[in-house]
TrEMBL record:
Identification of the protein by name: General secretion pathway protein G
InterPro entries: Bac_GSPG_pilin, N_methyl_site, Pilin-like, T2SS_protein-GspG_C
Spans through the membrane: 21-42
Membrane topology listed for this record: Single-pass membrane protein
Compartment(s) where it occurs, according to its Swiss-Prot or TrEMBL record: Membrane
Length: 145
């Protein structure tokens, strides 16, 4: 009797050895279909996140420039539009995530007006100026003072 039970157990193990090739192929095809739907949906997420960080940085730069203006009576002078690196060194309370070189900065001759701009990956421009006093963008052309 024990021999019959052992033979039945051995026979059952032989039939349950694993997945068939067809089952594995079906799983692979389903995973491929799911991936083909997920990848395009997630492709623009990094660009949107970079733009959100830049917008927050523009607000932080504006606040730092306003504090500088209250102390010095004028904004840091930079008559030619260039990156923000040299001006960022003179601001004490500046807290930005991107490098200062990612932003362009220019002032008028008197140091009474400024323009800070950021060019996003898809040629959209975001900027803050004394004239607008809030974030503007996206714009398709580069802003000027």
């Amino acid at each position: 009797m024990f021999k019959i039970l052992k033979a039945a157990q051995i026979e059952r193990k032989n039939h349950e050895a694993g997945f068939t090739l067809i089952e594995l192929l079906i799983v692979i095809v389903v995973l491929g279909i799911l991936m083909s739907m997920a990848v395009p949906a997630l492709s623009g997420v990094k660009d949107k996140a970079d733009t959100a960080v830049a917008k927050a940085d523009l607000h932080n730069i504006m606040q730092s420039l306003e504090m500088y203006y209250l102390d010095a009576g004028a904004y840091p002078a930079q008559a030619v539009e260039a990156d923000f690196t040299t001006v960022a060194e003179s601001l004490d309370e500046l807290n930005i995530k991107n490098t200062a070189a990612a932003y362009n900065y220019v002032t008028d001759a008197d140091g009474e007006e400024y323009l800070i701009s950021y060019q996003a990956a898809d040629d959209e421009y975001y900027y803050i100026s004394t004239a607008a006093s809030s974030l503007v963008g996206p714009e398709s052309t580069a802003p000027s003072l």
